[in-house]
Amino acid sequence: MPNKTIYVSDEDLKLFQRAQELVGGNLSGAIVTALRRFIELEEGRIEGYEEVVLKVGKEGTRQIRFSGALLSHWHQVGDHRVEDIRVYRTRKGAFAVHSHFSNWSEFPADTNPLKDWKQWRRFLGLGEQDWGDYDFEVFDNIEDMKDKIPDRLYARVLDAADHSSIEELDI
After folding, report:
1. DSSP string, 16-45
2. Would you give the DSSP letter of residue 94?
3. What is the pLDDT of residue 124?
4. 82 in the Ramachandran plot: left (φ > 0), alpha (ψ -120 to 50) or beta?
5. Which of 17, 49, 158, 165 could bond to 44 as cystine, CB 3.0-4.6 Å?
6. Count of alpha carbons within 13 angstroms of residue 144, beta-carbon side
7. Which phi and psi angles does 48 have, rounded to 5°?
8. pLDDT at 118
9. What pLDDT is attached to residue 17?
């Protein structure tokens, strides 16, 4: 098995020692794991993907993470709820739909926008709402999500999936 020598500065020595403690002595295994993760993230970034962290579940109590590129975003403030839906293309070619629905009937009772001016944005449905249900679904192909998202958002996703989000102009 080939050997590689890595020179570590005195400032970084504690970092390597801590990594070795965490993996139970196999420092090369920790380095390989870290390099795999680094290469995966960097190659994804070069291809236009980024690390996405999203809330899921009731009130967004859990989080998920994946590598994806945002295709389109839908934000609607209605009489009964605020809808916030984002559609991503994952690095593996699937389509991920993150939905957040905040029903006005569930608006936190401890918030009074008349007494606290900072709550006006929340009350008016502006920006990210911090109550409600957060859902996440993954679809193998774009057609499978057609009935799961609003028609206008689906049309935007189709267009975004077929075209680069940035068009390079040589002008």
Report:
1. HHHHHHHTTT-HHHHHHHHHHHHHHHHHHH
2. -
3. 60
4. beta
5. 49
6. 9
7. 100, 10
8. 58
9. 86
Residues 6+ apart with CB under 8 A from 156: 71, 72, 74
Structure token digits, residue 45: 């970034």
Arithmetic mean of pLDDT, 54-76: 92
Amino acid 16: pLDDT: 85
Higher pLDDT, 29 or 154: 154
* Domain boundaries defined on the chain: 9-46, 50-162
Q: What is the mean pLDDT of the chain?
A: 85
In 3D space, the residue among 120, 117, 122 whose CA is nearest the CA of residue 132 turns out to be: 122
Taking phi over 0 as left and psi of -120 to 50 as alpha, with beta for the rest, 156 belongs to alpha
How many C-beta neighbours within 10 Å does residue 102 have? 22
